[in-house]
C-alpha cells in the first residue's frame, strides 16, 4: 500500500480504480505561410468555434453547478476577446509570416509567463486560464476536440491538474472522486468540486506513472489517498463510506424542521446564490430564505450595463419564487477578483484593497441608482432586503441612505409601488468591526462576510496557495471580530448573521450560536448539515465551553 497526503477541498469517501488523466499535448510546429490574411481568418474562425464551445460549457455548468460557479466560462470567453491577446497573435502571423498554431502557442506561453510572474494571486491563476483557452483554439485548428476526461466505469480521476472546463465535463455518475498534484483550495476547479459534491484532493504528490488502473481510496475528510490499500485499511474505509452514506440519508429527514436549539433559540438558516438558476437547490435543501444574492453575476453575464428592467425581472422572479421568505440582495460587488470589462476600470496593483463594491456605487451613482430602482420595484412582489458590501464608515452609510431616499422619492412621484425594504451592511473589514457600535445605529442588520474579513484581518491573500499554511480562518482575532460585531448589533437591537464560508464550518456552529449569531447563510447543499448542528446544541450550556475552546 502507498499512502499520499493531499489537501481536501470536499469531504466524502470514494473507493474504486484509478484513471490517470493526461492532457493531450498539442504538437505545434513553426511553419511559414505566404497568405497571412488567410491565416488570420483561419485563426478567427477557430476562435469563433472556441467561443461556441465555451457557451455550451457555460450552459451545461449552469444546469449542474449553478450560475456562480459557471461564471469561469464567461471569463474564458472574455479572454478570447482580449485585445492584447488578439493583437499579439495577429501581429505574429503578419510580421513573422507564421502559422496560426505557432502564433497561438507562443502568445499563450508569453501571457502565461506574464501572469505567473505577478504578485497578485488572482492574476497568477489567470496563467492556467490563458493556457486553457489557447489549448481549446489549438484543438480546433488541428481539427480535433480539446481533450476531456472520459471513463466507461466509475473511477477516481487522478491528474497533474484539471482545468475548470475539464472538471465541469466530468460525468458525475462515472467519477467517484478526483485527486490532483497541483491546484489551490480557492481555484475555480476546487469551487466547482465543492458545488458538484465530488470528494476531491489537491496538492497530492502522486506519481502519475505508477497508479493508473490500481484500486485506491480517497478520504476527503483527512486528505489521505491510499493506492493498493491493504485489507485492514480497505475495511476501515468501507465502514467510513457507509457511515457517510447513512449521514447523508439522515440529513434528508431534517427537511421541514425548524432551526431551534435544544434550549429554544431560533436561528435563521439561509442560502447563498449567484442567480435565479440556483433557486432549485435552495428549495430542494429547504433553506429559510436567501441570505446572500450575489447580484454582481447579473453584471458579469452581460456585455454592457444591465438595464433597470433586466435587473427588475431577475429580482422579481427570485422574490416570487421564495414566496414571502426573505431575500437579501447584495448590491454590486464588482472589483478585486470579479471584473467586467465594460466598467473600464484601471489596472490596480492590489485590487482587493482597491476600487470595488460600494466605492464604485458611491462614485458612479447612475449605476447604483439603476440597481436600487430595480430592487425597490421588485420589493412589491416579495420580502426583499438590501445589504451593502465593503463598508468602512458611518459616512458611507449616510450617503447610501441619502441616495436611497432619492430613489424612493422618484418611484413615489412616478406612482411605482415598492415594499418595506430592510437595509443592512456587510461587515467584512476590520474598520467596520471597530466602528460597528456606531454603524448598528444606522442599519437594520449586519451580515458578516468572513472570507474578506479573515483575509483583511490576517493580512493574507486567501487565493495565494503559498500562504495556505498561514491562513487560519479559526484565528482568535477573526473569531473575536465576529463576537464583537454580534454584541454591538444586539446592543442596538438589530440582528447579525454570517454569509461567508465560515458560516458552513460545522466545527464553529456551536461557537456561533454561543455568541448569539442570529443567522447563518451557506451554500444550498450545506443547509441541512447546519440545521442538524443547531438542533443538537444547548446554547446556554455551550456558551462558556465554546468561548474557552475558541478564544
Summarize the structure in words:
The protein is an alpha/beta fold. Helix content is about 50%, strand content about 15%. It contains 22 helices and 16 strands. The chain has helices at about 35-65, 65-80, 85-95, 100-115, 120-140, 165-170, 190-195, 210, 230-250, 280-285, 295-300, 310-320, 360-365, 365-380, 395-415, 430-435, 435-440, 450-460, 475-490, 510-515, 525-535, 540-550; strands at about 1-5, 5-10, 15-20, 155-160, 175-180, 200, 215-220, 225, 270-275, 290-295, 325-330, 385-390, 420-425, 445-450, 495-500, 520. Helix 1 runs antiparallel to helix 2 (about 65-80), helix 1 (about 35-65) packs across helix 5 (about 120-140) and helix 3 packs across helix 4. The longest helix has 30 residues, at about 35-65. The chain starts with a strand and ends with a helix.
Quick check: average pLDDT?
Answer: 87
Instruction: Compute the number of strand runs.
Output: 16
Q: Tell me what portion of residues adopts beta-strand conformation.
A: 5-15%
Categorize the overall geometry.
globular
Structural class by SSE content: alpha/beta
Q: Numbering strands along the chain, what is their spatial order in the largest sheet?
A: 1-8-7-3-4-5-6-2
Gap from first CA to last CA = 41 Å
The description of the largest β-sheet is:
8 strands, mixed
How much helical structure, as a percent, in the residues? Answer: 40-55%
- Unreliable sequence segments: none
Rg computed from alpha carbons, rounded to a whole number of angstroms: 25 Å
Number of helices: 22
Amino acid at each position: 500500500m502507498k499512502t499520499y497526503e493531499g489537501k481536501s477541498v470536499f469531504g466524502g469517501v470514494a473507493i474504486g480504480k484509478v484513471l490517470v488523466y493526461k492532457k493531450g499535448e498539442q504538437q505545434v510546429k513553426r511553419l511559414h505561410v505566404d497568405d497571412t490574411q488567410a491565416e488570420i481568418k483561419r485563426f478567427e474562425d477557430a476562435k469563433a468555434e472556441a467561443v461556441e464551445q465555451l457557451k455550451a460549457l457555460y450552459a451545461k455548468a449552469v444546469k449542474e453547478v449553478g450560475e456562480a460557479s459557471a461564471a469561469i466560462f464567461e471569463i474564458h470567453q472574455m479572454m478570447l476577446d482580449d485585445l492584447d491577446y488578439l493583437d499579439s497573435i495577429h501581429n505574429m502571423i503578419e510580421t513573422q509570416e507564421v502559422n496560426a498554431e505557432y502564433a497561438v502557442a507562443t502568445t499563450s506561453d508569453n501571457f502565461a509567463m506574464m501572469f505567473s510572474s505577478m504578485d497578485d494571486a488572482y492574476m497568477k491563476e489567470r496563467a492556467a486560464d490563458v493556457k486553457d483557452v489557447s489549448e481549446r483554439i489549438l484543438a480546433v485548428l488541428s481539427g480535433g476536440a480539446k481533450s476531456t476526461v472520459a471513463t466507461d466505469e466509475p473511477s477516481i480521476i487522478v491528474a497533474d491538474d484539471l482545468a475548470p472546463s475539464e472538471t465541469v465535463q466530468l460525468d458525475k455518475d462515472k467519477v467517484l472522486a478526483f485527486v490532483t498534484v497541483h491546484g489551490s483550495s480557492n481555484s475555480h476547479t476546487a469551487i466547482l468540486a465543492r458545488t458538484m459534491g465530488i470528494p476531491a484532493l489537491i496538492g497530492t504528490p502522486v506519481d502519475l506513472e505508477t497508479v493508473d488502473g490500481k484500486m485506491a481510496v480517497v478520504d476527503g475528510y483527512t486528505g489521505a489517498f491510499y493506492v493498493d490499500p491493504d485489507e485492514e485499511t480497505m475495511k476501515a474505509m468501507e465502514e467510513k463510506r457507509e457511515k457517510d452514506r447513512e449521514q447523508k440519508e439522515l440529513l434528508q429527514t431534517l427537511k421541514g424542521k425548524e432551526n431551534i436549539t435544544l434550549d429554544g433559540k431560533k436561528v435563521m438558516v439561509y442560502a447563498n446564490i449567484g442567480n435565479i438558476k440556483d433557486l432549485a437547490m435552495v428549495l430542494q435543501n429547504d433553506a429559510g430564505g436567501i441570505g446572500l444574492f450575489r447580484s454582481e453575476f447579473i453584471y458579469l453575464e452581460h456585455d454592457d450595463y444591465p438595464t433597470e428592467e433586466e435587473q427588475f425581472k431577475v429580482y422579481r422572479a427570485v422574490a416570487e419564487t421564495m414566496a414571502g421568505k426573505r431575500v437579501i440582495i447584495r448590491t454590486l460587488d464588482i472589483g478585486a477578483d470579479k471584473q467586467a470589462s465594460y466598467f473600464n476600470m484601471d489596472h490596480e496593483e492590489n485590487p482587493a484593497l482597491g476600487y470595488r463594491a460600494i466605492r464604485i456605487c458611491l462614485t458612479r451613482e447612475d449605476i447604483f441608482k439603476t440597481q436600487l430602482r430595480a430592487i425597490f420595484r421588485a420589493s412589491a412582489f416579495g420580502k426583499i432586503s438590501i445589504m451593502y458590501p465593503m463598508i468602512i464608515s458611518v459616512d458611507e452609510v449616510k450617503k447610501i441612505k441619502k441616495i436611497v431616499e432619492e430613489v424612493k422619492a422618484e418611484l413615489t412621484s412616478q406612482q411605482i409601488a415598492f415594499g418595506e425594504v430592510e437595509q443592512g451592511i456587510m461587515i467584512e473589514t476590520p474598520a467596520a468591526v471597530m466602528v460597528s457600535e456606531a454603524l448598528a445605529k444606522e442599519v437594520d442588520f449586519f451580515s458578516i462576510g468572513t472570507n474578506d474579513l479573515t483575509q483583511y484581518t490576517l493580512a493574507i491573500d486567501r487565493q495565494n496557495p503559498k500562504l495556505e499554511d498561514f491562513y487560519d480562518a479559526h484565528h482568535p482575532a477573526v473569531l473575536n471580530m465576529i463576537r464583537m460585531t454580534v454584541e454591538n448589533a444586539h446592543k442596538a437591537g438589530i440582528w447579525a448573521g454570517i454569509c461567508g464560508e465560515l458560516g458552513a464550518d460545522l466545527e464553529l456552529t456551536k461557537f456561533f450560536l454561543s455568541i448569539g449569531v442570529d443567522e447563518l447563510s451557506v451554500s444550498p447543499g450545506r443547509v441541512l448539515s447546519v440545521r442538524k448542528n443547531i438542533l443538537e446544541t444547548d446554547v446556554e450550556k455551550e456558551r462558556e465551553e465554546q468561548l474557552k475552546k475558541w478564544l
